[in-house]
Write a structure and sequence with these properties.
single chain, 315 residues, alpha/beta, Rossmann fold, 2 domains, seven-stranded parallel beta sheet, three-stranded mixed beta sheet, 16% strand, globular, binds 2-amino-3-ketobutyric acid
């Protein structure tokens, strides 16, 4: 196989901004094309692209002779609840366009992220298995559930090598997330360093599955590099690293910032969090392609603080 030519769709988001340099290290900077609705000002080749425009997507793929696609463009859970029509259009029509273009352009490999949001209030909450009751309560979760089955269908009907992970909440310092229910676990660090205080939009006891970005990027690269015959799941793999409540995260922060103060003012996102699992069983990912998380809660908190201190230039 020749060196992949990679297109990242939705490259300006929280995950895209960290996947891009990791893919550039793996394949070479000149092998990467980033696309988003707005210019990104990156060091890579860029295309302005609205994924709901299939003809424009096909033209970008053809122009750059793309072989691998990472399709990350989506509306997340909280924004999706406020704008269900747009969430459906971007998350479903966008994915359909990508899947069709992949088949037409004979794309060798596609990555598409799913989420713990596929699970709903009837799902077993602890150590949620790969195969279980999946009745999502948000429009975002509904699009992810349908998307998983679309991916599986394109794999079975068209032989498209599509691979997917059910990400937990992703925690990172380079780019802040936008519009998710797990975003508090990023905002808390910036507010702790700016104001020594944070008002959390979830209650103190809302345990959710989470992952530090270096683990998420590595999981993505490892899944995409795995031999196809090892992969038994073409909907989306459960993926797990950490599980903690806002109170546990605050307590871990307070070990390093003893004066940090956390308040709670739960809003509409509480109901979304309540419908999701507290922890995930990812034994299929471990068995099929050797997944192992590396980052603990303490190590993640320390690393986040070090990097955000530098970024904000605070002591
Ligand atoms: C969200 O909170 O919507 C996302 C997710 C868990 O998919 N971070």
């Amino acid at each position: 196989m020749s060196t992949p030519k990679v297109l990242i769709i939705g490259a300006g988001g929280q995950l895209g901004q960290e996947l891009a340099p990791a893919l550039a290290r793996q394949f070479g900077q000149e092998q990467l094309v980033l696309s988003d609705l707005k210019p990104l000002g990156s060091v890579y080749a860029e295309e302005l692209l609205d994924v709901t425009d299939k003809a424009a997507l096909a033209a970008v793929v053809q122009k750059h002779r793309i072989t691998h696609i990472y399709h990350l463009a989506a509306l997340l859970s909280a924004t999706g609840e406020k704008n269900p029509g747009l969430a459906w259009q971007i998350n479903m029509q966008g994915l359909l366009n990508v899947l069709d273009v992949c088949v037409e352009a004979k794309i060798e490999r596609l990555f598409w992220p799913s989420s713990i949001a596929v699970f709903g209030p009837t799902t077993p909450r602890h150590n949620t298995p790969q195969r279980t009751i999946i009745e999502p309560a948000t429009i975002y979760g509904i699009t992810k559930q349908a998307g998983e089955h679309l991916c599986d269908w394109y794999f079975r009907k068209h032989g498209l090598d599509v691979r997917s992970l059910r990400y937990p909440g992703l925690i990172s310092w380079k780019a802040e997330p936008g519009g998710g229910t797990t975003d508090y676990a990023v905002h808390i660090f910036f507010e702790a360093l700016r104001h020594n205080a944070y008002t959390c939009f979830l209650g103190a006891g809302s345990a959710l599955p989470m992952m530090y970005m270096p683990d998420a990027v590595r999981a993505t690269l490892e899944l995409m590099a795995a031999p196809a015959e090892k992969l038994s799941i073409r909907t989306s793999y459960n993926l797990s690293a950490l599980s903690f409540t806002p109170a546990e995260l605050a307590a871990t922060l307070q070990k390093l910032l003893p004066d940090f103060r956390m308040d709670y003012a739960p809003d509409f996102r509480q109901a979304i969090a309540d419908s999701w699992p507290a922890s995930i069983d990812d034994s299929e990912a471990r068995k099929d392609w050797g997944w192992q998380p590396e980052w603990s809660l303490d190590a993640m908190v320390q690393d986040m603080l070090t990097n955000i201190r530098q970024k904000l230039q605070v002591a």
